[in-house]
Each structure stands twice: as C-alpha cells, then as structure tokens.
Amino acid sequence: MKGSPHDNEGRAVSGTVGSTSTGSTSTGSTSTGSTSTGSTSTGAADSAGNRYLVRTRGLCKQYGKDDSLIRAVDHVDLAVSPGETLAVMGPSGCGKSTLLHLVGGLDRPSAGELWLAGQRIDQMSERGMAAIRRDAVGFVFQAFHLMDELTAVENIELPALLAGRSARAARRRAIALLDQVGLADRARHLPSQLSGGQRQRVAIARALANEPLIVLADEPTGNLDSEATLEVLRLFEELHEAGQTLVIVTHDARIAATADRLISMRDGAFVDETRLTGGSTGSLGQLAGLGG
Amino acid sequence: MTRLLIIGRLAWRDLRLRRAEAALMLIVVTAATATLTLGLVLTGVTASPYQHTRAVTHGPDVVAGTAGAARDGGPPAALTVLEHAPGVTGFSGPYPVVGPVLRTAGRMIPTGFNAEGRSMAPAAIDQPKVTRGTWVRPGGIVVEPTYAAEAHLAVGDRVTLDGRPFRIAGLAVTAAEPSVNAPGQIWLTEADARSLISRSDPVYYELNLKLADPARATAFADARSTGGVYLQSWQQIASHDARQLQIEQAALGVGSSLLGLLAIASLAVLAGGRVAEQSRRVGLLKAVGSPPRLVAGVLLAEHLTIAVAGAAAGLAAGWLAAPLLSGPADGLVGAPGAPSLTFATAGIVTLAALAVALLATLGPALRASRTSTVAALANAARAPRRSRLLIALSRRLPTPLLLGLRLAGRRPRRLVFSALSVAIVVATMTGVLNMLAQGRVRRVPGGLVNPVHTAVSQVLLVITVVLILLAAVNAAFVALTTVRDSRRPIAVARSLGASPDQIRAGVTASQLTAAVPGAVLGLPAGIALIAASTRNGSSVVPSVWGLLAVVLLALAGLTAISAGPARAAARQPVAEILQAEA
C-alpha cells in the first residue's frame, strides 16, 4: 500500500499479555489472565526497551455503578508493536469494540493508562485526542460511516482537509488511494451507488488518508458478503505487507487468521492469546477458505 | 370511529411526551395569530370611537371657520350668514379663536394650537366632554388630551399664554376637531380669549352648524367653502381621525404577513424535526399493522390540535392587546377593539392557523407515512441532500467553515427556511430603523413628535418584539434539529480528527450559512416594505451604518442562540453514536 514505515525486525514478539508466547505455531496459544502484565516499565516501552505503538496498563471502562455496574473493559494490559497486525475476537458484548474505541481515543477509560504513538492519551485534552485521531489513527467501521452526501473521492479526502492540507494535495492523495483500493473508476460515485465491499474499501482508503501510524478496524467485514469479505481481506493483507500497524476487532475467524497475533476477550478481559505464523505470509485464499 | 380514537390517543400521548416541542409550536402559532387578530380587530373600529364621541359631545355636522375678523373685531358676515343657510337647523358660536404662545415652566411649546373662547355654560352644539378636571373658568383653560399628552401637560399645571398666567383646569375631547391634529386645541373663557387678541395675534372665528340632513354635510361644506370661509363636515373630521388607525392597520398588516411567513417557516422546521425524531415510532406503528394513513393522521392530528390551541390563545391575546395600540384615541371617547372581535374574525384566525399548520405538516406527515417500515424501525435518518456547490466551495475553507457549509448543505429546505426567518427579522428591523429616522426628521428642535408617528412606532415595536422572539425560537429549534440530525456525521468528523472546538464553530457556521444571505436579502426587502407602506413618499432610508448594525445584531443574536446546541454537538459521545448507528 504505502512505503513501510515500520521495520518488523526487532519488534516485540508479543504484547504484555502472554509475553511468553513467542513465535508459536498458528495453533499455539497461551491462556492469560487480564492481570498479567509481563512488564515493569512505564510509558510506551517495556523494561527490555521495546517500544510499542500502543500500550495499555490496567485499562478499564465501566458503565453504571453498584448493582448495575458493567465492566466493558476490565484491567486490560496490551502492547502492539509497530507493523504488527493484531486480531481481537470474542462474543458480542465482550468489550472488543469498546477497547478499540479507547485505543483510538474515541472514548475515555474509567481507569488505567494508555499510550498511543509514545504519548499518554488517557488524560489528554479533547483537543489533543482529536489531534491524535487526526494524525496517528485511521478508523474502519463495520457500518462504513461514510458521509452519504459525499462522493467516494470526497469521503477519502475529508481527513486530509480536516488536517488542514491543501485541497489539491488532499484530492491527489485521495485519487491515489482510490486507485490503490481498486476503485479509481468509482471516484465520483456516492456511497449509495456502491456495493458494500466497495464502500468498505472507500472507508479503508479514508482511514489511510493521513498516513496513520495505526489502523483500527471494528468488524470491517461484519456487513459484507463472502466476495466483498475477500476483497477487504486482500486489502488488509496488502496493508500488513506494507508494514501498516493494524488492530482488527472481528467475529470472523478468517480475518483473524491473517493476523500476527490473536487475542480472545470475554467479559471485558483478555482470556487467551495466540501467535500466528500465517499472517501475511500465508495464502490468504486458503486461510479465508474462499478459494483462490 | 375506532381509528379516530386511536389517532386521538396516539397524538395526545405524543404531545405529552414531547412537551417542549409542542410548547414551541404553540408559541409560534399564538404569536402569529395574535398579530393577525390585532389587524382584523382594528379593521372594523376606525369609525366607532369618533361616532361615539360625536354623540356624547353633541358634535356639529359642519364646522365653519374664517381666516380673520370683521373690521369691528366681530365675526365676519360671510360666517354669520351660514347660521340661517338652507338646511341648517341649529348652531353654536361663532367663537373667537386666537393662537397665543404657550409656555410651561419656562419651556415654550412650539407646536401651534387654537385657543377657542367659550361660555362657561354648556353649548347646544359641540359641548366638549371633560375627561379630567373641570370645564373652563376665568384663568382656567381646558386642553385636548392628545395635545396635552404630547406636550406633557397635566391638570393643575401652570402655563402662560402670550405671557399671561393660566392654570390647566381640565382635559376634554371634542368631535369638532380631529383628535390627531396640528395645531392642538385649547378652550378658555371667551373673555380670556378676547384678552389675548393683539396685533400680532389676530382673532378669527369658528361656527358649529347642525343640519337637517347630516349625511349631506360634506356636500354642504364643499358648496360653501369660498370667500375666506372654510367648512369641514363631520365625515371629513372622522376620516382624518380614522387615518391614525389606518396607518396602524397598514403596519399591522405588513407585520401579520411577515409573522405568517415566519410562522410557516418555523412550523415547517418544527414539524419536519418532529417527524424526523419519530422515525422509530412510525416504524413501530407500521410494524404492528397501522396503515400509512393512520401514521399521517396522527402527525396531522397533533399539529392541528396545537394550531387550534394556538389560535385560541392568539385570539385572546390580540383581543386584549387591541385597545393598547390605539393611544391617540385619547382624543376620543370610547376604545376600539373589544367589541369588534366577531365570529368572522375568530373564524378567519383559526382557519389561518389551521392552514399554516396543515401546510407545514402535510409534507413531513406524508413522507413519514411512505417511509419503509424497516428503515423507520432502524431509525435511519433521512438521506441528506448533496449540495455540490457548497461541498466544492468548502474544500478550500478552514475546518470550521468546511464543516459548517457541509452541515448546512445537507438540509437545503431547512437552509431556506432559516434564511427566510433571518430575512424577515432584518427586514422588520430595517423598518424600525426607518421609523426612528423619520422620528428624527420630523421632530423639530425641542418640538413635538407627530402622535400618528408615535402610535405607528409603538405598533411596529410590538411586531418587532414578537417577530424577534419568534425568530429566536425558530433559530434555537433549527440549531437543535441540525445537531440531532447530524449526530452521525459529526461523530464521524470527530473520529477523523475534528476537534470539539472545530465542531462547535462548525455548527455555528452552519447556522450562519443560512443567516448571512438571509440578512443580506432582508435589507432590500425591508427598504422595499418601507417604500410600499409609505406611499406618500415620507420614508427615509436608514444610514449604511444603521443597516450594517442591524445585520451584525441579527447575526450576533443567531450566534448566541446557536452556542448551546453547538456546545452540545461538541460534547456528544462519539463512540456511543457510532456504535448505536452501526
């Protein structure tokens, strides 16, 4: 997709959760509790000096109180290295999306620490969070969340315009991204004139508009049919190969199978971690079970 | 019957559930119908106070006056000959009239007036009705109330006439002179009047005549107004009096039209907003088997109920306010207003309110009835409109303006109604500026203001206040609806990096996107309205600075009103909205 900004070599092989799991096979897993930290350092780096793009310690998100207290995210420790693709799976309501929103600065944690791109963001001002979202994060949503009244190219250039780039530069970048997601001929189509897969590809292109450090995808294939799912899978694989850091929340095992690492969640906590050797090096079609 | 019961029950429950919106709609309809009622009520009362005064004061059918006295100082023969003219059945006078200089507490009242010498005993024809104090006595003068009010004179005040001291003994009204007239009218004893005659203040005379056929008074007056004798019929005096209320009616007519337009715009926005918010409810109704007609029926029933309630409140308010808007009728006996609220007036006002509500609601109600059940249940927002021009233009603008133009462009109908609302307010405020400018021009240094001008200014002030209040309600609701309607795009913009400050400024900019062209259009519209309502060419175009101040004031007001909704938009929970609308 774009030039690899992150070197996969030398990065941490895992997050703080299940840090003992190193280079295991695709079936290897280490059951971990949410209290496992595996690190005594502070900030975005661990005691071994590994720097992470995302790091959380004791991250919590709670709603309600007393008897009606809901722990959507319950003392989660997480570390995501630059260039890594992390899949988060779990049943509906287990807190996957909430975790993603916290990591992307869309929501504020109730407790815990959260670093993104070397900055602690859990106590950051709203303005600072906005700047982080604008410059360091790209979101991909299940429902696409494209602006209905904007064409594909106008949707893609929007983050760049919000970031203050010139209209010409934003448009140039948007056209290039449209070309890369294979929709150059759909530039002037409205979202209502695109298929689900095409909409999601536009959403992915939009997420990349400001060359983010990390792309956070929330059920990116949840609304798509098999063919469209394959299109999106291919796109994520290309991103992964290009060194883009990805965190994908999904129900779909085929998507999860393309990741470097898979974390399972239940009741707001991490319950399992699996290091996969498939990832970008595996055959996508085979992994996805879609042929080709 | 069952269906009507269901419609009634659902409509009533929804009104109770959304009380704030129902109250806003009620205010809008009440304000518009109150002004319409005022206009209609004042239409039928132009003559009645004068006729009442004429009856109470034994008013003359014709008033005859001369420009000067006879050589011996007495009334000229050209006047006295009228006492026995064919058709004349009675007369009073001739009374000597002088025009002395009046001073009070060292202040000169520059507006001229007639000081008429009268007997202390009541006259058979034209006996002014004392409304305060007593009738004339030696050293005691009586002043016509309109003139007294304008000159700030009260019973008991000490004044001088050509340097001679007098005390104001009372106030009285007459049907022999228009109540709104310059010069003003003063009565004093005949001896006092004659004592003021001098070379510099010559005397002239007035004679009141009673005719066998009062209906032919104008023809009588016209036929004999020659040779230095001027005659005025009671119909001509009544017409002069009615002019006051006619001007008020014209101001009210323009105001009612503007308020009507604003009411339609406000109700259209309110009804559209309510329907948009009831999407899920519409879906539920359809899902349990309600036909589209029932869905439309519920919405129509709600808004028509509000229209009827608003019309009733507006009728009552207009009826009560009518007498307050007839200030110069101080010069007459009897108040206009209350007696003329007829069934016809009530019917017109109610029908107008229903028509406005129907016009504003029909479109959204039909749209809601046609919405697919699945889409309505999913609470899917109405697809926004694509404004290519605004989108292209906004690409080159700073983030707040980019967001503002795009938010505004999503709902062009709302944009037009908002612009219309601001244009109406600016046009009205331009009219007020015009009135102020006229006041300045017509007021001679230290002099009196024409009471007609004062009364029209008061009417215009009432209309302006109501219009501004209505426009403020409208602006607040439009801003709120914009924020509610744009929850998802605002949340998406936040997820793409727009800061809360940018969102806040963007929402405000979206409101100004409609307001700026509205304000600019409102200025020429206001000037055109002034020109149309003052056919005698007495209009004065306000200064450029004044017009600029009006525009800036309107925009500042709108910005202030939008501040609350804009702040709410910036604070809305992004993740929650994106999850809910997934």
Task: Describe this structure as you would to a colleague.
The complex is a heterodimer of chains A (292) and B (582). Chain A has eight helices and eleven strands. By secondary structure, chain A is α/β, with parallel strands linked by helices. Chain A has one domain (29-282): P-loop containing nucleotide triphosphate hydrolases (Rossmann fold). In chain A, the strands form two sheets. Chain A has a seven-stranded mixed beta sheet, with helices on both faces. In chain A, a hairpin with a 2-residue loop joins strand 5 (111-116) and strand 6. In chain A, helix 3 packs across helix 4 (167-180), helix 3 runs parallel beside helix 5 (196-207) and helix 5 (196-207) packs parallel to helix 6. Chain A is globular and about 50 Å long. Chain B has 582 residues and is of the alpha+beta class. Chain B has helices at 2-17, 19-43, 48-56, 77-80, 145-151, 190-195, 217-224, 234-277, 279-287, 292-321, 343-370, 373-377, 388-394, 399-409, 412-442, 451-485, 487-495, 500-533, 544-571, 574-580, and strands at 62-66, 88-98, 102-104, 107-109, 113-118, 129-133, 140-143, 158-161, 164-173, 184-189, 204-211, 229-233. In chain B, a hairpin with a 2-residue loop joins strand 3 and strand 4 (107-109). In chain B, helix 1 crosses helix 10, helix 2 (19-43) packs antiparallel against helix 8 (234-277) and helix 13 packs antiparallel against helix 14 (399-409). Chains A and B meet through helix 1, helix 2, helix 3 and helix 4 of A and helix 14, helix 17, helix 18 and helix 20 of B.
